[in-house]
Amino acid sequence: MIDKEKLEDAYKKRDCFFKAIENGDLDKVKSMLPYVKKVLKSGEMGLLKRVYKDSLRSLKNIMLSYNSLYFLFAQKGGMDSLTSHYLAENYAIIIEGASKEENIWEIHDEMVYKYTDPKNRQGLSEKSLAQRVNKLLNVNFMYPITIDDLANELNVSKEHMMRKYKEKYKKTILQDLQEIRIEEGKKFLKHTDLKVIDIAFSVGYNSSQYFSKVFKTFTGLSPNEFKKMQNKSH
Description:
Helix content is about 75%, strand content about 0%. By secondary structure, the chain is mainly alpha-helical. It has 2 domains: about 5-120; about 130-234, Homeodomain-like (Arc Repressor Mutant, subunit A, Orthogonal Bundle). The model has no long low-confidence stretch (mean pLDDT about 90). Keywords: DNA-binding, Transcription, Transcription regulation. This is AraC-like DNA-binding protein.
């Protein structure tokens, strides 16, 4: 039997947590996160029993719902639609592909911080040219993207754009794009049981062989070797 007073208190604190996400208040979110997770895990709200004898499926359903809620409150607080859409889609794929509850809790913490981070509330117009390029890379890495595409999107010459980017980040645009894709690939390998070919397509490669080659260049390991290493560490 669910205690009515405890339930009402949990909902009040949850609403306060959502408000902190909306306001981009990282300190408040960090201080409240342990309580929020404790409530979700304890079953005070009856959420983990919604799928009979399948706690993993129940947890996935909860986190997919919370992903949508975090997305809405972040947008309400000023996060641009491009960034919020990318985050919501990316986390939905990772949650759905997760095979362990611990992976879902890890990704929950990450998505809370990402949705709350004030740096993710700045629009493209508020950033330098190099920062605008970087933001476009971070929310479009899963698509075929070229230097010409970026220059056309920002209405600048590609030579000027590449020079400014190299000056700020000490690497080329394409080098950074590869790094972003590999870091995202690591996330999928760590938290899900998706096949390498599916991960490759999810992070912007149309060939699993090429993804594996680039992955090994950056990490010294093949995707499967990286996956095995992650499994051993848990």
